[in-house]
Write a structure and sequence with these properties.
Blueprint (H helix, E strand, L loop, with lengths): L5 H32 L3 H23 L6 H38 L1
Helix pairs in contact: 1-3, 2-3
């Protein structure tokens, strides 16, 4: 049995990173679409504010090391939190638009 080529291992590692980032983006996207379409905008904003607070804390940790390695903080921020915030924001907007469409159709 031959060993895999180093390029193939790097490709699979890159695929794992992209898959993890996509998971971090799609989870809040679908959750916030469902919540916003149901009219729970307070919970939607609370979730987005918690994600934003986590981003700020990790961004602060990249400049002032206080218990977490700055490189690790930046990796968590860029690979986990930023896709979550972007996915959650897009999901909230889409959910609001779908809610508005549902309200207009119910009024006719």
């Amino acid at each position: 049995m031959a060993l895999a080529a180093p390029g193939r291992i790097a490709l699979m590692g890159g695929f794992g990173i992209i898959a993890a980032m996509a998971f971090c983006a799609f989870l809040p996207f679908f959750a916030l679409v469902r919540l916003a379409r149901a009219g729970k905008f307070g919970l939607v904003l609370s979730i987005l504010s918690v994600l934003g607070a986590a981003a700020v804390v990790l961004f602060y940790a990249t400049a002032k090391p206080f218990g977490i390695d700055p490189v690790q903080a930046m990796a968590i921020l860029l690979l986990g939190i930023v896709p979550s915030v972007l996915g959650g924001g897009a999901g909230a907007i889409l959910g609001k638009l779908l809610r508005n469409r549902d309200d207009r159709q119910a009024g006719k």
